[in-house]
Amino acid sequence: MNIRKRLFIVIFGTNTPAGKAFDVALLFAIIISIIAVMLESVSSLESRFGSVFRIVEWILTVAFTLEYLTRIYVTDRKTKYIFSFYGLIDLLSVLPTYLSLVFTGTQYLLVIRALRLLRVFRILKLGRFVGEGEQLSEALKASRHKIVVFLGSVLTLVIIMGTVMYLIEGGENGFTSIPRSVYWAIVTLTTVGYGDIAPQTILGQTIASFVMIMGYAIIAVPTGIVTVEMQKVKSAIAASQNNCPHCGSVGHDEDANYCKFCGEPLED
Amino acid sequence: MNIRKRLFIVIFGTNTPAGKAFDVALLFAIIISIIAVMLESVSSLESRFGSVFRIVEWILTVAFTLEYLTRIYVTDRKTKYIFSFYGLIDLLSVLPTYLSLVFTGTQYLLVIRALRLLRVFRILKLGRFVGEGEQLSEALKASRHKIVVFLGSVLTLVIIMGTVMYLIEGGENGFTSIPRSVYWAIVTLTTVGYGDIAPQTILGQTIASFVMIMGYAIIAVPTGIVTVEMQKVKSAIAASQNNCPHCGSVGHDEDANYCKFCGEPLED
Amino acid sequence: MNIRKRLFIVIFGTNTPAGKAFDVALLFAIIISIIAVMLESVSSLESRFGSVFRIVEWILTVAFTLEYLTRIYVTDRKTKYIFSFYGLIDLLSVLPTYLSLVFTGTQYLLVIRALRLLRVFRILKLGRFVGEGEQLSEALKASRHKIVVFLGSVLTLVIIMGTVMYLIEGGENGFTSIPRSVYWAIVTLTTVGYGDIAPQTILGQTIASFVMIMGYAIIAVPTGIVTVEMQKVKSAIAASQNNCPHCGSVGHDEDANYCKFCGEPLED
Amino acid sequence: MNIRKRLFIVIFGTNTPAGKAFDVALLFAIIISIIAVMLESVSSLESRFGSVFRIVEWILTVAFTLEYLTRIYVTDRKTKYIFSFYGLIDLLSVLPTYLSLVFTGTQYLLVIRALRLLRVFRILKLGRFVGEGEQLSEALKASRHKIVVFLGSVLTLVIIMGTVMYLIEGGENGFTSIPRSVYWAIVTLTTVGYGDIAPQTILGQTIASFVMIMGYAIIAVPTGIVTVEMQKVKSAIAASQNNCPHCGSVGHDEDANYCKFCGEPLED
Fold this sequence. Notes:
With about 270 residues, chain A is mainly α. Helix content of chain A is about 70%, strand content about 0%.
């Protein structure tokens, strides 16, 4: 086995001790890099430790760049990796620092920096969490049509409610425009309730109460959707694990030796 | 097939490519019209682009009017359509603009405009989302009695809690009347929590804590109701796929071996 | 059938047309009475319509008193009714108005008035909602031990978190005492979030973030408890409806004629 | 039976009347002690009843110390008890008062005092609630991997959203640094919504609306996870009640006719 193949197993694999160690080290490097970006934005820390943050950033950027190039080198399907989700994230997570040399506009630099935070998704590649994550996303994918219908209804509701409140409360009570009133309706329906805009008239408060109770009841809908889909994914996994060669029944437990319906032995 | 029948399929149908294209175009027209109404309410935009908004509004109103008249022309059951839910919404969504010519009172005009936003419901007619929407509304319909009992209990609770808080906190702490205190109780129980009215006395804060924890626990009730009903709707759909080869009846459980109506064995 | 028995059926029964009409009339009287009490607390309405509210209150109090006395007269088990939950509520809902004649202290009078609002529970006696309400309360009763454990854990958590925040933030940031900090912890954990007390230090905001995410995840627990219990109540009702005389299996659908497991006819 | 064994049954057991009485007494002592600590932090009460609180604290500390020493004396596995969870809590719940004699720094003293509140966990040892608590914690333990994936996703989301809002809103609107913006994102996503930091720009409010609706939908995920796991724990308990008369194995499904381990028919 040549070096290229060994590196592939270490960098892309997660089963060998070396592969695991690499992933954990990468995880820590990403977290340190994110913390450095976050702390750099605190002006009091920036003025005192600014140079430290920049050194950490450059060291990690160079390390991530080397890692990115190694990934391209060791993989056989280079084009597929480069244009895969993680390939693009890997590239985007090192570009901003290099771009900061060319473009001196701090504002723009910071916008691109935010994308580096997406690197944290690589954490999810670690070991046993992937299976659980897939179960979750499968359940969410199965309920996506219902969720679109749900979000569409919620959106219609907040637009109508926002417009009604704009007409009732008016600009003097903070409802200065329909978009701002719709923003208030979302803040209220989702039970966030900042309190920066709040109804002052009795009619407005009555309608707001109605929106709140509705929001309180509506939350049952996405919960119900996701719970039912998760139950189904769980059942499907359980059912697919074992079927009786005699009567064809499925859904036997993993530890079953005999069919629970006809009593014949199970094969696996 | 004459033109009238063809138009009917395009306008009312959703299965042909032309019908689909028509629905998508209608959807975009509605969204543009809603955005125009919303942006018109922002005073800074109104002063600069006011005439653009009015032109967009008039063009779309004329288009929707033509669409409405065509719908009446092509359908065979004209009276049924006109007085159906969507028929009335179609009419109400064009009326306000025409009324704005006669009545110059801006306030009244805007009130009627809000109804145009209901047009967005037509989105739900698009393709595959209808089935999902029907599943959702069936589950909600099945749980409506439980939801009425639940809402009744919540209403009783907020009236009692609001009155108690009115007596404890009094007008000097913002609880100026029982209706206002009930409004506070709803804001708190639904976990919205604006903070415009908040208890100041120790006894008031203790009772408020009680209301909050109760609100936090009570939300489990509608969630449980809807989840159980959705599970049932899902099972009913699954059951309707298992049918008896002897008597043709449907609705057998997935694990049934014999038809529950005629006693003959099920095939699958 | 004498008058006493007929009155009993009208007042206590809900199946005859007269009984139904009586209940609906009672319902409206209670709602009017509650609205009168609520509006009386609004000072601007009190000064203008105060005498109207007092007349409505006296008329309804006399009517409810007559109703209460009739209930005692027509029922055979008088003592049982008087000391039953609804019997006590019926009495307590008329007493405050009479007591207001003797005790002139407005404060005390108002405290007792609040109890009249409990009358609204009588609404729940109306027809078909009782069954649904019983299903709900059965599910809640079955999960009461789990809910006590849950509430105990939440209480422990908010006490510890409140104390920690009191030590970190201190009086100058609004956390003036442990009880007040515990109040803050409840406001935060239940996701109410008034904003009257909010952490100012970085450490305080970090711990607050932890409390919020925990509160967000913890809400899953009562929801899970209640959903599972409701599912169980539903299944128990379904299962108890039908059992096979041949193989003893239960859980057959209401419309089943033959056992779905052994194919033998069901008896009922 | 000697005194040591009898004391063991009273102190560690919960089945005898004496054991029950001891636990209830202990529970009250813990609650009184916690209330004393909490009230001592209220400055107005401290100045008036400060000495009372200190006397209560010393009496209860001595009582808890005696209880702790007796527990060590009566148990056979002394080392195991001392280093068990409850053993450590028992020790930590008396230490702070003694330490307050040596170290005069009031601040530090109070920090350690907070740990005494953990004593309340001993309440959970009382009788029948343990089983329910174990069911809850078993369900939570089974869903821990999914919850880690969920919390990781939420954390990634709030970091990205916080950074985006920091760039859009900037310091002048309260988003002074990325950590503070992340704090805002957590406050918003969890629907707490203090309102101490709230977006002011239109783009900021639009993104905030997106975060709110997402937070509103995301809460369905932990709820779904916990509900499904609870259902499973419940089913497992039900299954453990069905056991094979031939091989004695348990865990058969309720609808099983034959033992899944040995193939012999099940009796029930």
